[in-house]
C-alpha cells in the first residue's frame, strides 16, 4: 500500500512592495507629528485648516492609488489572457 502526501492548494501570490494606503497614512501621521512639534516649539498656524488639508490630500492620494492599482491589475490580467 502506497501512501501519497495530501495535496495542498497553492497559496495566493502576495503583492510585493508597500501598500499605497500604508504610505499615505504614514505621511499623514508624520505631518500631524511635525505640526504638533512645531506648535510645541512656538510656531503659529491654523490647526483646523492644517488637518483639513492633510486629510484631504491623504484622501485624494488614496483614491489615486486605488484607481492606479486597479488599472495596473486590469492591464496585467489582459496581458496574461
SSE layout and pairings?
Elements: H1 20-40, H2 47-80
Helix pairs in contact: 1-2
Explain what this protein looks like in three dimensions.
By secondary structure, this protein is mainly alpha-helical. It has 2 helices and no strands. Helix 1 packs antiparallel against helix 2. 0% of the residues are buried.
Q: Roughly what percent helix?
A: 55-70%
Class from helix and strand fractions: mainly alpha
Which radius of gyration do the C-alpha atoms yield?
22 Å
The share of residues in extended strands comes to under 5%
The average pLDDT is: 82
| Largest sheet entry | none
What's the N-to-C terminus distance?
42 Å
Give the SSE string: HH
Shape type: elongated
Uncertain parts: none
How many beta-strand runs? 0
Count of individual helical segments:
2
Short note summarizing the structure:
By secondary structure, the chain is mostly helical. Helix content is 68%, strand content 0%.
What key attributes describe this structure?
single chain; 81 residues; mainly alpha; 68% helix; elongated
Amino acid at each position: 500500500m502506497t501512501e501519497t502526501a495530501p495535496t495542498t492548494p497553492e497559496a495566493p501570490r502576495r503583492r510585493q512592495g508597500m501598500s499605497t494606503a500604508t504610505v499615505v497614512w504614514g505621511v499623514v501621521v508624520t505631518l500631524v507629528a511635525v505640526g504638533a512639534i512645531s506648535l510645541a516649539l512656538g510656531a503659529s498656524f491654523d490647526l483646523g485648516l492644517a488637518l483639513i488639508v492633510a486629510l484631504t490630500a491623504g484622501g485624494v492620494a488614496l483614491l489615486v492609488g486605488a484607481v492606479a492599482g486597479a488599472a495596473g491589475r486590469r492591464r496585467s490580467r489582459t496581458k496574461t489572457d
